[in-house]
Design goal:
The protein is mainly α. It has helices spanning 31-40, 47-58, 89-96, 130-145, 152-161, 177-197, 214-226, 230-238, 241-264, and strands at residues 11-12, 18-19, 62-67, 70-76, 82-87, 114-115, 118-120, 162-163. It has a 3-stranded antiparallel sheet with strand order 3-4-5. Helix 4 crosses helix 9 and helix 7 packs across helix 8 (230-238). It is elongated and about 75 Å long.
Amino acid sequence: MKTRLMTRPSSLLADGSLQLHAPHSWSELTQEQLRYVLTLLTQGWTEYQMRTYLFARFCGIKVLNEKKDGWLCETELEDGKKQRFFLQLWQVQSFCETFDYIFDGNGADNRLDFIGPYKAVDVELHDFAFANYITADNFFQQFLQSNKTSNAPLREMARCLYLKADGKEPDTIDCSESELMGVFLWFMFVKDNFSKHFPHLFKPASESGEPYDTRAAMDAQIRALTGGDITKEKQIERSDVWRALTELDAKAREAEELNDKLKTS
């Protein structure tokens, strides 16, 4: 795979040392860089292979010759000049740690702006209907329950998250494997972000190993908010997901406090 320059050029400091530049977070990735990362993640390579490709690609490194104790390389400086330098294995390993964020399992707080003609909604799902979030989350759970063997749920998620110019969901959407990977990692971030903002509603697995049923908790809190009034339920579903989750998290917190009082009384 080619490793042409995809980030700002390297810098030669006053003391003669070479400073290489690479993105240090998902949010720093350009759209082109993000597509490259997502493509790597769908190739079936080892993590170390991917880290090495990312290092060479993003730092604009060209390997000229392999030596016994490292590699003779070349990169382009800010003034357009070529700079040759020597890389040892320990240096490559150290630089590769820059990309820990790609493999930390928390998803990506960045997403492709477009899939085909369809534009992504807000990365944190602001101004996104609560009902649409529930739909996307159901497909996300289906994907996990399939042991990540069926991409059909991810395609349906993409329909929820990438909209037409009029703001409506497309009837169908064609996605590459790398684009589907982007949808999955994006929604992983959404779930992780919500768990931090709404800790009473989104809980980790219990000590017994049983997963916390977030959907059941949401349903219980929605019933508490509506008092059984179906018209209010529809209003909640149409509301912004952040507003809805704020209210549901508050209800979950109140329920926890009441249970604690009952236990101690």
